[in-house]
Amino acid sequence: MEILRNKDHRAWSYGVLLGLLCQIYISPFAYSRYVVSLGTPVLSALLLFQPQLPVFPLTLVMTVTASLLRGCIGMWDLGQPFSDRFVPALIYYGIYSILLSSSFSFLKEYGKSRLMAGMIFFDFLANSLQLALMGHIEGEAVIDSALVAVIRGLLVWGTYWMYEWELLYIRQKEHQDHYAKLNSIVTDIYAEAFYLKKSMEDLNYLTRKSHQLYEDLEAKGQDGQQALDIAREAHEIRKDYQRISQGIAALVHANEEKSMSLSNILQIIQDNTRRQMTQRNQDLSFDVSCQADMQIQRYYDLFTIINNLLVNSMDACEEKGKITLSLVVKGETLEIRVADDGCGMDEDMLAYIWGAGFSTKYDRDTGQMSAGIGLCHVGNAVEHLGGMVEVKSKPSLGTEFCIALPMEKLR
Has residue 156 been placed in a domain? Predict the structure, then answer.
C-alpha cells in the first residue's frame, strides 16, 4: 500500500479501477450501441470526496483502460470488430476527460456545487458528441443524453450530500458529548472552588480568633506565642488557598458562557445522567420535566445542585428504580424537585446530611467511605443563591429534595 501514498500513483490505480467499472453498463436506448456505464458517476463521486487528486492522469488512465477493455470484450465475447466498441468508448471518455481535466481547477475554486454542475454538463456534452459522431443527431438523442447526465449527476450529488449530512450529524453529536463532558468537569471545578472559598473564610476567621487570643493572653501577662504562631500558619495557608482559588476562577471564567438556556442545561444534565447510568450498569427510569425556559447566568450553580442530587439518587437506587427531575417557575421562584424511590434515610440522619465529610456510601470492594461533600456543595450553592431546601425521606420508600431559588439571583 506504500505506492498509494503518492498522489500520481493513486490516480493511476484509481484510473484502472474506474476503467474496470466502465465495463458495468446498461444499453437503455434501442436506436444505438450507446451504453450508460458505472464509471462516470463513480469518477464524479471520487473527485467530490478527493478533489486533490490529479485529474489528467486519472481520466487518461480511465479512458485508455475503459476503451481497450470495451473493444476487447466486444471482440472476444460478442464477435464484433474491435473498433465497434473501442471507438464509441474512446470518443465519450476522451471528450469527457479533456473537458473535465482542463476545467477542474477552475470549477473547484467555486465550490463543490458548481463542480458537480460542471461534471453534469461535461457528461451531457460528451454524450451528445458521441451520439452525433455515431450518426444520431436527432432531438431524441440529445434529450436522452441530457437525461442520462442529469440523472447520474443527481444520484452522485444526493449520495455525496447524504454522506456529508451524516458526517455533520456525527461531528455535532461528538461535539455535544465533548461539550457536555467539559461542562461537567468545569462544573465540578466550580463547586470545588466554591468550597475552597468557604474554607478560606474559615481560615480567615481562625486567623482573627487566634490573633485575638494572642492579644488577650499577652494582656494578662501570659505567653501567647503559640496562638500567634497558629494565626501566622492559618494566614499562610489562606494565602495558598487564595492563589489556588484565583487560578481555578480564571480557568472557569476563560471557558464559561455568559448564560445558558434552561432547556440546554437540562439536556446536558439528562445526557450526562443517562451516560452515568449506563456506565454503572443501572436499569433506572429517569424522567425530566420543565414548564418554562429562560436564560440562566448562574448556570454552574444549577449544575452543581442538580448533578449532585442526581448522583445521590443513583446511589440510593442501586441497580433498579425511578428518578424524577422537575423544574417549575412559580412567580419569581424556580422550584427544583429531585425524587427517587431508593433506600431513603431515617429522620435522625437528615440533620447531618449537609455536613462536609458525612456519608453513608462506601466502596463494597475496598470498604472505603465516600468523600461526603456532594450535599455539602448543594447546601453551599443554595445558600449562596439565597434559596431554601426541604428534604423528605423515608427508609425503603425514597427521598425527595425540593429546592426554591429566587429568579433574580439566577438571572
Answer: no
Intervals of the chain under pLDDT 70: 1-7, 28-34, 136-139, 141, 175-198, 248-258, 355-374
3-state helix, strand, coil in the chain (%, to 5): 65, 15, 20
d(CA 377, CA 62): 68
Same domain as 245, residue 128? no
CA distance 262 to 293: 5
Neighbours of 37 (CB within 10 A): 20
CATH assignment of the domain containing 344? 3.30.565.10
Determine, yes or no, domain membership for 154: no
321 and 406 housed in the same domain:
yes
Please report, as a single letter, which amino acid is at residue 344: G
Query: Which 8-state DSSP code applies to residue 88?
Result: H
Same domain, 128 and 189: no
Q: Does residue 160 form part of some domain?
A: no
Are the C-beta atoms of residues 200 and 246 closer than 8 Å to each other?
no
pLDDT per position as a tens digit, 217-256:
888 888 888 888 887 888 788 777 777 777 766 666 665 5
pTM reported for the whole predicted model: 0.47
- Residues 312 and 330 grouped into a single domain: yes
Helix (H) or strand (E) holding 238: helix 225-255
Q: What is the pLDDT of residue 47?
A: 87
pLDDT, position 336: 93
Is residue 23 classed as helix, strand or coil in its secondary structure? coil
Size of the chain in residues: 411
Domain count for the chain: 3
What range defines the domain where residue 300 resides? 260-410
Q: Which amino acid is at 251?
A: L
Cα-based distances in Å from 155 to 24, 44, 376: 17, 10, 60
Q: Give the C-alpha separation, 380 to 192, whole Å.
A: 11
Check: CB of residue 266 under 8 Å from CB of residue 302: no
* 96 and 211 share one domain: no
Numbers of helices and strands, H then E, in the chain: 11, 9
The pLDDT value recorded for residue 137 is 65
User: Is residue 174, in this structure, part of any structural domain at all?
Assistant: no
CA distances from 34 to 50, 131, 239 (A): 29, 7, 86
Q: What pLDDT does 192 receive?
A: 63
How many other CB atoms sit within 10 Å of the CB of residue 30? 6
